[in-house]
Amino acid sequence: MEPSEQKAVRGVGHSVRRVEDDRFIVGRGNYLDDVKLPRMLHMAIVRSPLAHATIESIDISEAMALEGVVAVVTGKDLEAHKLAWMPTLSGDTQAVLATDKVRFQGQEVAAVIAESPYVAADAAELVEIEYEPLDIFVDPYKALENTETIIRSDKEGQADNVAYEWEAGDKAKTDQLFAEADHVVKLHTHYPRSHPAPLETCGCVADVNGATGKATIYLTSQAPHAHRTLFALVAGLPEQNIRVISPDVGGGFGNKVPIYPGYVVATAASLLLDAPVKWVESRSENLMSTGFARDYHMDGELALTSDGTITAMRCHITSDHGAFFADAQPTKFRAGLVHICTGSYDMQAAHITAKGAYTNKAPGGVAYRCSFRVTEASYIIERLVQNAAYELGMSPVEIRRKNFIKKEQFPYTSCTGFIYDSGDYDASLDKALEMLGYDEIMAERDAARAEGRLMGVGIATFTEVVGAGNSKEYDIAGLKMFDSAELRVHPTGKAILKLGVQTQGQGHETTFAQIVANELGIPPEDIAVGHGDTDNTPYGLGTYASRSTPTGGAATAVIARKLRDKAKKIAAHLLEASEGDLEWDSNKFVVKGTDKSVSIQDCAFAAYTNPPDGEEPGLEGVHYYDPPNMTYPFGAYAVVVEVDPETGEWEVKRMVAVDDCGVRINPMVVDGQIHGGLTEGYAMASMQYIHYDDDGNCVGGNFIDYLIPTAVETPKFELGETVTPSPHHPIGAKGVGESATVGSPAAYVNAVLDALQPLGVKNLEMPVTSGRVWEAIQAAKAAAE
Amino acid sequence: MEVTITVNGRTHTKSVEPRMLLVHFLREELGLTGTHIGCDSSHCGACTVLVDGTPLKSCTYLAVMANGRSVETVEGLKQGGKLHVIQEEFKEQHGLQCGYCTPGMMLVGKALLEENPNPTDDEVRFAISGNICRCTGYMNIVKSIQAAGKRMQAESADAAE
Predict the structure, then answer these.
(1) Complex ipTM value
(2) With contacts defined as CB-CB under 8 Å, which chain A residues touch B130?
């Protein structure tokens, strides 16, 4: 393809400006709270102030007496319709409105439906609930030891607080390699409870039409099709009568993958009241009750030979799920894909075990900007590798190079069973070190140390696994993880592309049009991209786990190619040539060796006006793509920090991020995704934290206590790239939305630890606050005296 | 209570509950849904509007407090069918992703540029520090505001010639 033609078509590789921006910059986005329907009622939820208590009585009389209140719903009301409990996406159950007892602070107990949101909030205050407190467990280790107080007393046969147990890898071989090891490095660390906190909270407008039976549910949903099916299964509504519309979504980051009790109550209320019901979370409700992330206590170990070769890894995880196991994990993988924790390193064996605990905390464990626990996996290995370097007296660069899976080893089968599709880890690290000016920076660090300053350099070289499925192994609640695209090319050569995936800011309306442009030669501005409306898009599992490009993007490329094949038949008819004599050139078919051609637009017109004899008219089709494997994006991140020894404050001086996400569809959008991910990685490393006191009170239930970086704290990023295409993806793309969140926390923490290394500080827990750093410095000084 | 508030140049007189927040007045009474709600506690800035030219968090400001004042929202940026330079630059510099913080960011940026047409990176970062973005990492927002400032300066220089 000539560069000029490629530019005209502006397919893959062009920083096309985003079409969705046109509505957002003028304030004409259509987010959930912007949906307003005639006769719409408003719902407020009454929540438990206690973390664990039986419900003795609920008195709704005062609330009902308030003018403007239409109904007050309790768990007993839902029980009558068999809706008091619902399944979670991880095969557990969750209370919709509590009937027996409350299990965490903020749990849904009753709901008020009123004519205005102000009245609903007033009436919620008037619902009187008597509780009898029970013993509270906020520490997963204590909860697991305990068999007296069973948090999930609702579950038949549940005699403890264990949510699940899971393991992967080869225990015997791992044990043997550890027994033979010259050196073992150990690290116990906590990946703290965090919350995705998209700027738009969760909510819904449920509109069940009593006349037609049609349930239209506007939902802040990252997975509208899966949610439709689950609504059908939970609420018993016929699926053809359910339409889930995920309008513009103000950020998701995993928070909008699960189904929440509020959605179910609002839908039930709409059904019973025959009026639309809107429910929008407050920020506190969002932080205290919906989809938290992480909360993994990890014991990691590496076995090494004396020359620094990693032979094996062990990792045990104690996972705190709160009151309900409400992750969204593939059925086979209770701890997600955490067994990717061998990372970028070639080792002989690994053994991973995980035990999930029920505690009196909010439910969840969602993958926050992360493909099923890959973030925690990446963190533990990258921390362990740096510790190993220190303990063996090697440089963190040298030990990585020594153990990297080499370029020629791909496709590489890891000892926990993943087949890494492609990679070039040395090239990625080389590039990061070159951008950083590694030797100069290390000299500067050493000079700073000589002056008594605390400067540190941290590295993380991560490998992700994203883009689930294949559908054989991966599912959500039984729904197989494929995805789809439907492409309709109209007579005038303009097209509509409809996706099973959905966008929450990733820019699909632009980038997926570029994929079509690349394959069919129709310019992106001539392609409208539809998504998020289950009545008008083919079935798909949704957007999370960096899966849109690996699955939906692949489906888009394949259907475009299928239509191109059909267009070729039409072109042959129009040109009175045989198909074999035609060649595709960017946006037209040319008769080889001549200047005779027809454009894709000519073919589209003919598909409806002059189809060849015997050929099905039209130029439309749908493709369901079941990926043969997942994709394995990777990268090398390097962070330079300086720590103030007096206050413990640390400042990021440099942040270099080299990402390899395969082929980049829209480089501008890719860079934007990486900027955002690096910021959320920094947020987790430095400040974001949902904590509970011993009484089960949530500390971090608003933006006063739950800290999020502003522009002032956020580092300035320097981005670089290498491109190693995925060999199995139709256009070689791997997905990029989560790489930076996955890879960067370890780089930041490693940098601070490197700065404190001269003092002998071995570990810091995230969030690495100035207080924690200061305490570590004081402890190290005291130990040295 | 009756309030008279000028919004984007149009004067509205409405009877409102004394406790009605300005953001609800804009969204529910006037249907101007470009102003968003993100935190309820004036920390995130999604609800930022300009009141008499000054950025203000409309989720913790009563509609009655705006009585007699002039409010500018995102819907007021485009004038005479022409986008404001700051709108064009947010698109050009990829200063937005999900779009939820964007109205507040653009209004704060506009207010900054009126006082300081050529802000440094740090000056922009300080100016937008009351506005949270969860998607962009701020770098392209800073670039958008700076690029808008440069263009506004160039355009006013052209106009002066």
Answers:
(1) 0.98
(2) 710
